[in-house]
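Priority: medium. Attachment 1 of 2:
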């Protein structure tokens, strides 16, 4: 049935839109998450329009061929991993900004538009698209919608869902659905737009996104504060909150992350402190807010940058790349948990104990403004061979880190999604009645189970 479906797709689509070459299959088979169950898709399909997507879905539905939607492949939870006998539906060629209304402060884009490209278009009108995941220069808006991506500016501007007004979605039978509204307000009926955002391609394929834009800040001030330890840095986060200042960016880096940045970039961050808190204020009140931030942090024992913020801005750019150049694999896993901000210190202290206990390496970065942490655990490679005992230690520390986050009122994923990789922990966070309700929703939208099976729920 799969080969028949591929032949039909080759008949109705143009040359180059269906690729069965092994080099392409391998390239598109996985995203940047650890690979649990490596599969090659039957083909990679590149639709160029909404009718293309509809035709692909109809053929796959008739032949019972599963579909894995894909953006740029920057996800780190396995949401775009190929599954058995599937096609990969790459939306990267649907990359047009369809409209941008400066007066309405909205834009309509296709799913393959790169986050940074939308921002460039908006900036010409003094506007910006607020969500800015670290991968904003390569990740697509469709992929951001699929995982409800966050980013550095979450502290002030929220996550993707907070900027999405409406969606065009191709359902599992090939029909086209428009959800939401063009206005900032709207409460007619159930919030299906919110349901699709973060659903990881399991309910429908997003082919159009209407987003709300924000004002591009006239002024930005960046503050870097070095601390002797993580505990004091996390205390600084809470102190800024108590001062009722709302930074746009509030990022926390531990000593392990500073050491890695020094190694990669030749910087001297570790000589200046064992933890770094980066805070960026924006808007007309940015200077006054930055002055308040500096006073609060200095009073808490930090070594704070002066008014000249060029270095601090460079440090923010380094933070965007603080996961390093490596991709998660069986030896290294970057996590994406969130805890209440008041528990940041407790959680990182627990992680440090776990790392010692299980003899694994650890570094931590955090979107401290909203309690979202990205701890990375890794073990030493031995000639790239799999050390079963070491891998066992790595998996045990991952399990323990998740259990600890949930015990502190947290979640297993703040912005990366469940995908394939985190399914093993979902039951700890969501009890069975809740999961059963979600399965019923999935069955309603996708009764044949052809859309991204084995992911998200």
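Attachment 2 of 2:
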């Amino acid at each position: 049935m799969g080969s028949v479906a591929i032949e039909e797709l080759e008949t109705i689509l143009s040359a180059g839109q269906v690729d069965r070459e092994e080099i392409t299959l391998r390239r598109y088979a996985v995203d940047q998450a650890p690979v649990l169950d490596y599969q090659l898709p039957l083909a990679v399909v590149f639709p160029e329009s909404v009718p293309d997507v509809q035709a692909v879905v109809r053929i796959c539905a008739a032949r019972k061929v599963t579909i894995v939607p894909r953006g740029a492949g920057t996800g780190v939870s396995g949401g775009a991993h190929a599954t058995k006998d599937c096609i990969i539906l790459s939306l990267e060629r649907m990359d047009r900004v369809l409209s941008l209304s400066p007066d309405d402060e909205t834009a309509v884009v296709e799913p393959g538009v790169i986050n940074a490209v939308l921002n460039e278009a908006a900036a010409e009108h003094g506007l910006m698209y607020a969500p800015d995941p670290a991968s904003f220069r390569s990740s697509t808006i469709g992929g951001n919608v699929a995982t409800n991506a966050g980013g550095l500016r979450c502290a002030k501007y929220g996550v993707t869902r907070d900027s999405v007004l409406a969606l065009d979605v191709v359902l599992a039978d090939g029909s086209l659905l428009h959800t939401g509204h063009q206005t900032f307000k709207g409460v007619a009926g159930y919030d299906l737009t919110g349901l699709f955002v973060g659903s990881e391609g399991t309910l429908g394929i997003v082919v159009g996104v209407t987003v709300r834009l924000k004002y591009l800040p006239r002024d930005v001030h960046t503050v870097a504060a070095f601390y002797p330890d993580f505990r004091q840095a996390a205390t600084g986060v809470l102190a800024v909150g108590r001062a009722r200042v709302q930074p746009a960016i509030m990022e926390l880096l531990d000593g392990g992350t500073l050491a890695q940045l020094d190694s990669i970039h030749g910087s001297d961050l570790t000589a200046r402190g064992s933890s770094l808190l980066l805070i960026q204020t924006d808007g007309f009140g940015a200077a006054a807010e930055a002055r308040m931030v500096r006073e609060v942090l200095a009073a808490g024992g930090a070594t704070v940058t002066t008014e000249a913020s060029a270095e601090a801005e460079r440090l923010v750019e380094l933070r965007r790349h603080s996961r390093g150049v490596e991709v998660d694999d069986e030896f290294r896993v970057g996590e994406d948990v969130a805890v209440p901000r008041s528990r940041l210190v407790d959680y990182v202290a627990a992680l440090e104990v776990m790392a010692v206990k299980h003899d694994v390496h650890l570094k931590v970065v955090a979107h401290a403004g909203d309690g979202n942490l990205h701890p990375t655990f890794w073990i030493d490679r031995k000639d790239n061979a799999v050390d079963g005992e070491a891998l066992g230690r790595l998996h045990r520390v991952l399990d323990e880190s998740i259990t600890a986050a949930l015990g502190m009122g947290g979640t297993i994923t703040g912005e990366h999604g469940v995908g394939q990789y985190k399914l093993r922990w979902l039951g700890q966070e969501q009890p069975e009645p809740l999961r059963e309700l979600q399965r019923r929703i999935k069955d309603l939208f996708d009764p044949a189970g052809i859309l991204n099976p084995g992911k998200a729920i």
